[in-house]
Specification:
Blueprint: H1 2-57, H2 64-88, H3 94-114, H4 128-147
Helix pairs in contact: 1-2, 1-4, 2-3, 3-4
């Protein structure tokens, strides 16, 4: 009888361990999926940010009006990134939180810098502080991307 009880207990314990591993794997898969969604959303930002940077350097035909449209697109895409970060329900690393803050500040600075300017003016002719904010936005994007563990689409 004792032998049967020990054997039954061992089987139950093994079953519980297996169940524990299964739910752990499931949780890891959900986390990976959520992280992939965050990274995919970040990729949506990258091209628009690169377009702004090209406009600032004068190598692209980007006007202030087009830049303002790009800022709106970036804000929409960034909202998607933030929503996906929240869905990931992971404790965001301090590095990621700082990168998010810096990104938001640069975006706000660009938006404020472009307001009131002639929409037909070339982006490469805007004041230096706006150009600097665009450069910082790109750098902040890279920091955010790295802090969230996403690979750059350019890689």
């Amino acid at each position: 009888m004792r032998r049967s009880a020990v054997f039954a207990t061992a089987i139950i314990a093994a079953g519980l361990l297996t169940t524990g591993c299964s739910s752990t794997e499931e949780a890891e898969q959900k986390t990976e999926s959520a992280n992939a969604s965050v990274c995919l959303a970040l990729e949506g930002l990258e091209a628009t940010i690169e377009g702004l940077t090209t406009g600032v350097t004068g190598t692209g035909d980007v006007t202030v009006g087009k830049a303002q449209e790009s800022v709106n697109q970036i804000e929409t895409a960034y909202d998607t990134v933030q929503a996906n970060i929240q869905k990931a329900d992971a404790d965001a690393a301090e590095e990621a939180l700082v990168a998010q803050q810096q990104f938001s500040e640069s975006l706000m600075q660009i938006e404020e810098g472009l307001s009131g300017l002639d929409g037909t003016q070339s982006l490469s002719a805007v004041p230096g502080e706006v150009q600097q904010a665009v450069t910082e936005l790109e750098s902040n994007y890279e920091e955010l991307n790295d802090s969230l563990g996403c690979a750059s689409a350019a890689e």
